[in-house]
Amino acid sequence: MRFAINHITAPKLSLEQFFAAARSLGLTEVEIRNDLPDIVGTISPAAVKEAAARAGVTIISINALYPFNVWSGDLPERAVALANYAAASGATALVMCPLNDGTKVSFDDLVAALKAIKPVLEERGLTGLVEPLGFPISSLRTKKEALKAIAAAGGESVYRLVHDTFHHHLAGETEFFPERTGLVHISGVVDPTVSVADMLDAHRVLVDGADRLDNIAQIRALNAAGYAGPYSFEPFAAEVHELNDPVAAVKDSIGHLNKAI
C-alpha cells in the first residue's frame, strides 16, 4: 500500500522532525496543516519547500480551506492566500472542507463556490481535494453529492475527492468512487461505548484490530476498484497526539493494515 502521513498524527513534532519521522517510516508523502499544528501561519512557504526538499518528501496537500462552500466574507481572500502558500511551498493540492456547524448550505451555493475556487487553483497548478464530512451537522455529507456539484461546476479537471474512512462510515455511504478519488484519509474508532451518531474527531485513533469503522473493508474495496493513490494517516484523538513515540505507533498500524489487506 502507498501510505502517507498527516502532521496531525504527531502535532508536537516540528516540521523538520515530522518530515524526518515520515522518512524513518519509509514514507515520502506528507500533509501539512493550517490548524493543528499551524504550519501555514508560522513558517514561510519558502522554508517549508526547502525543508521538504532536504528531507526528500513531497507535500501532497495542505489541510484545509474551511468552509469552502460558503463563498462570502473573507473566504475568497483566504482561498487565494492559502493557494499562494501551497504553490510557493511546493504542495500539490488543497483539502477543502464544508461548513460543519448545523447550517444548511444550498446545492447552488456549493456549485457557486466550486466555480469561484476553480480558477484560483488552475492558475497555480493545484488540485482541489473536496472532503465531505459525515457528521450529522455537516452541510456536505456524501461524496456522491460532491461529485454532482463538481460536475455542475465544470470542475472535473481541477477537483478530486478525499475519501475519509471515518466520514464515509459516519455518512452511511456505500458507494466508492476510486476513479475520482485523489486521497484517502485513514483513522479508526475503537471506543466500544460511543454510537456512530455521536462519533467525533476526538474518537479518531490509529487503525488497529479493534477498529469499528471497517477500514479494512473500505481499503480492500478501493484497491479492488483501482484506487492507487495515497492512504494518509489522520488521527485526531488527544491520546495519539500525546504518545511518547508516535512513529512506533504508526509503524504498528502500518503493519496491521498491510497484514490485514
Automatic annotation (TrEMBL):
<dbReference type="InterPro" id="IPR013022">
    <property type="entry name" value="Xyl_isomerase-like_TIM-brl"/>
</dbReference>
<feature type="domain" description="Xylose isomerase-like TIM barrel">
    <location>
        <begin position="19"/>
        <end position="259"/>
    </location>
</feature>
<dbReference type="Pfam" id="PF01261">
    <property type="entry name" value="AP_endonuc_2"/>
</dbReference>
<dbReference type="InterPro" id="IPR050312">
    <property type="entry name" value="IolE/XylAMocC-like"/>
</dbReference>
<protein>
    <submittedName>
        <fullName>TIM barrel protein</fullName>
    </submittedName>
</protein>
<dbReference type="InterPro" id="IPR036237">
    <property type="entry name" value="Xyl_isomerase-like_sf"/>
</dbReference>
<dbReference type="InterPro" id="IPR014621">
    <property type="entry name" value="UCP036778_sugar_epimerase"/>
</dbReference>
